[in-house]
# Entry
Amino acid sequence: MVQAFIMVKTAAGKSADLQNRVHEMPAIVDAHVVAGQYDIIAEAESEEVYEVINTVATDVTNLEGVVDTRTYICLE
# Structure
């Protein structure tokens, strides 16, 4: 099982809506609006690292209001 944390920077006023939309994605197990450099932290799990990368590269970044993302794959 591959786990990853995805940091999402959103346009002003878009965090709550985007949190819900990100959380609905199949590989995402949890998503939280946070204060700091990024606005949402999402946790992803999948059988293959490709699935996590595809979720970020295709699904998350294509959402209207997403400004930037960073993905951190868990090594433990």
Remarks:
- The chain has two helices and four strands.
